Fold this sequence. Notes:
- This protein has ten helices and eleven strands.
- It has 263 residues and is α/β, with parallel strands linked by helices.
Amino acid sequence: MNPEQHQSVVHHIVDRLLPTAGDVILADARVGLGYTAVLLQDGRAGLAFTFRQQAVGGCSVFRRRRPLAGSRIADLLALATCTDPLEAAIGLACANALINSPSESTSEGDVLERLEPRSDDDVAMVGWFGPLIEPLRNRTRSLTIYEQDTESHRNSLPAHKAIEGLGHCHIAILTSTCLLNGTADGLLQAARGCREVVLLGASTPLLPEVFQPQGVTMLSGVVITDADEVLRVVSEAGGTRQFSPYVRKVVVPMSRDQTEKAP
């Protein structure tokens, strides 16, 4: 078997984008309490979720070389593979900035406009996506939510139980923050038997060529339309509700790669 097949999906993201990074330079970086945002010198911008509860250190929680501004994106991409959550967020935000433009594979819209659940479907949702919960419960047989913060979301199960639950569902909706906390590969493998596997959230890299071989059938993310406003919102500890006027929701539907599909 090719050794590259053992690489994590995040490593595949980095490998796919490194040749496109060239001499692109980071102009600005904002590590907010809700999201991390970066701005490239050519005007492109990218987002990634900030796992602030997992940040280490005292008053200075980012310990890499400063300033980040002026760094080559090619040197920052590898941070996406780090175990430190802030470093990973900067790396993934840089990755998303490189691909922050519409393409032939993307279409504007919300995930529920493209997903076609059936009345006898069992759905597993990893991460809490409030606007999707009632529509999915009304249109499917069951919806089970797995979430790290079960205190705030009382109708959810602990996130570590998702691996087992994904093996018994027809549709898997996975938060793209799994790319930041080291859980993506296990979740994607566990969801191999699902008819639909959706990677969802503002952190989602819109790279069908990376995710289709992993069994993903739909990517749902954002394209930033007003980078200055997104950076302002992130600096002010805002999140998706606050920066939604300055992004476009996009969907990349894919058929499951038959050469990689598990039996």
